[in-house]
Structures are given as C-alpha cells and as structure tokens.
Amino acid sequence: MLASFDGHLFWTALTSGPYWRGALTAFELTVVALATAIVIGFFAALGALSDRRRFRTVAWIYNWVFRATPTLLQLYFIWYALPQIWGVFAGHWFTPFAAAWLALSLNEGAYMSEIIRAGLLSVDPGQELAGRALGMSRTQILRKVVVPQAVRIVIPPTGNEFITLLKLTSLAFVISLHELLTAAQELAASTFQYPEPLAASLVYYLVIVSILMVVQSRLERRFSWTSQRRRRGAAVPAPAVSHDAR
Amino acid sequence: MADVVLRADGVHKSYGELEVLRDVSFEVDRGQVKVIIGPSGSGKSTLLRCLAMLEAPDSGDVYLESERLTALTDKQLAPHRSEVGMVFQRFNLFRNMTALDNVMCALVEVRRLSKREARERALEFLNRVGVADKAAQYPDELSGGQQQRVAIARALVMRPKAMLFDEPTSALDVELVREVLDVMESLAAEGMTMVVVTHELRFAHHVASSVLMMDQGRIVEEAPPEQFFSAPREERTQRFLALVE
Fold first, then answer.
1. Phi, psi at residue B13, to the nearest 5°?
2. What phi, psi does B23 have (nearest 5°)?
3. B64 — contact with chain A (CB < 8 Å)?
C-alpha cells in the first residue's frame, strides 16, 4: 500500500533545479574522474609490467595504498588533511568538486590499472615480436597494435567501474558537494517526507546508468575486428575491395 | 670472400641454465637458400631470432652485410631489423588491422611513407602473394594459408636483404601448406636470400642451396641437399632423417 506516496511531490523533486544540477554534478564528476583514472591506470599498468624494478615498485605501492584503504577515508583525507599538509591545496580553487575529482581519480586509477594490465596482457606476445621484427619501436607497437586490442578487453569492466564510480560520487555528500544525495536530503529536511525525494534521486541514477549501457554496447561493436560488424555499424565506409558474404 | 648477407660468428645463447646455442657459426650468401632441420629444442628458432636481432647473443657476433649488429644498442638496431624479414610459425598478424593495414603499417610507421604510397605498395605485394582480394579482411576472417601469405607480404614489402622463415607451414592444415610453399619457392627463384627452418624435406630437396642439421645447440652437418639426403655423413643426421621420412 502506497498510502503516503505523494506523486506531485515526486514529480516536483524530479524536475527541480537542485536535482538537475545534482545529477549533472554526479555525471560530470564520474566522467572526469574515470577519464583521469584511465590515464593514471594506464601508466600504473605500464609500470607494473615494466622491466625496471623501480617502476614496478612505485606501481605496486600506489595500487596497494589506494585499494587497501576506504574510499570515504581517502575523500576525507584529501579534503581536510591535504590542505594542512600542503599549502597549495588550501587555496579557493580547491573546491569540493576538485577534491572529489582528485580523490576518486586516485582511488579509481588503482582499480583501472589492474583492468588495463589484464587488457595489455591479453594481447599475444607474438604480435609484439612481429612488430619488432618489422623495425617498429616499443611505443609504436603499443600505440598501433597492443592498445587498440587491449581496449576491447577493457571496455566491459570499465563499464562496471563507471557504475561503481557514479555511486561513489554520493560519498562526496560528506565534503558538501552538491550532488544528488544533497538534493534529496535538503528536500526531505524541508518537507519531512523521505520516499519521494529519495525515489527521485534513484530515477536519476537509473537514467545515467542506462545511457552508459547504450554507449558501452556501441563502443564494443566499434572495437571488434571483423569487416562485417564494422559495416553493419556503418562507422567505417565499405572497403573498396570485394570480399565474400558471410 | 663470397657476398655474405647474414653471418653468425661463434654465437652462444643461454636461457638460465639451458644452453640453447653453443658456438654456432653460420653464414648465408646473397641469393642462397639455407634450410635448417633438426629436432625441437635444438636451437633452430633461437638461431633465427639472433639473426633477426630479436634476441641478443650472450657472446659471439652477428653481421648483416658488413655491419656488426652485436655492436649496436637496442635503439640503433630497430631500423636494421626491417632489413631482415621474419615469418613466424603462428603468422603473428596484427589482429586489429585488415590484411592491407598489416602490410602498410611498418611502411608508414618505420619507413615514413605517405599513406597513399604505402597503400599502393602494400597492394602490389598482397597481389604478389595472391591475396589482394582479401585486402579488406581481418586476420580472423582468413584461412591459415592466407594469413601466412599476408605475413610474408608484410615482411617482403620492407624490401629486406634476407628473409627468415621459422617453421612457416607447421601450423597449417595439410591442404594449405602448398600455397605457402609456392610463394616461398617463387621467392627463391627470384633470387631472395632465405633461411628456412622447416620439416618440409621435399621443399629442402628442391629449393635449398644447402641443408643444415642442428642438434643440442650445434650445427651438426651442412651439405648440399643431394648429398645431405642421400649420403649424410653424421650418424645424428641419419637417425633424424630415418625418423622424419
């Protein structure tokens, strides 16, 4: 029985400015943090796979620290402790958004490094050998051969990480970032009603994740190496040379 | 001295405790085809990889024409590697690229040719090995024989001074072996300098200038094919041939 669910309040919440802005903030934070985490994770993965012990050690310590400690604690540390340790972070530029970006990027980068490492290892070493035999440098082989193939392996787990990260942005509530949970909390506090404000924020999370799922399946299709699927995706013009139909 | 293209001089190579090459000296003259046979683990592939500069010998020297490759650093070696073509047992095509892109890739990346020029040349070489109609296909869509021919075109397009083949037909279905051997035979007929590790004794018989037997990291015997197959001197060669034939 939904005796006390106020449809009007729910709709008002759903279409209100704080919710929109909160959802946008959550989405933006997820996108920039994930993008940064992919860059950090890529270099951490190269470090972990390096021939040089020094790089392996640095990658290992980074990975260990950020996976072994709670995300919420990292967020607190970066928002409250970091400015006291390092004056640069005491400035006005260091907003809750910037702090959450930094914390979530570093945290997520550790997980991404494991995912990317697995992706790089999935490319059979014979192709690297062939590239070297052709006179290509290691960087050229990485850029042209290994990374494009690793991407395909990395996309599905990265979709998972996007979802995890999106939900983690609600933690930034505690460092007064105005995201979706803030909007719900404020509305609930002023109306003394919980079901409608919280339900409205659920809807936003569902919508954002649905958008992601569409983007992910498109990406996966783009990174599959057959001429057939490429043509169906119409991303690439049909090849000039004929081939048999399959 | 004859016109030597590739030469190994007293090469040693170990992996940990395992001695894979023990004092191997070997050379191939311009236009010669040398076939290396021997049991697995005898060091054939390692010798090829040392000649292709993919492995550095622990001691001894490798020369490409007059250049002492073992004196160069890894960075200096990179451009020289493309002067020796290498064909692998498992083809090792780049799976994210079409046949055409596989052949073009190093022309653009290493030789810095324009895309258009590289495409033209790549198509010419795909045509030469008879797979021009597969230019737009990805490796996963090709048969083993077609993949290996693309791999040969990819090495040839760099206009190497020598071609090295590491068991190029061992991973192929029986009925696809011929199409690859045909390409190799026509290369030999055109005067390409080749070193071929293979178990295809008929190919060795017809095409080789000389045949080498390797065992336990050493070259046991080298002779012209007629003599090698009809009257091998070494007992080890006789035993091996008896098992293979």
1. -150, 130
2. 55, 55
3. no
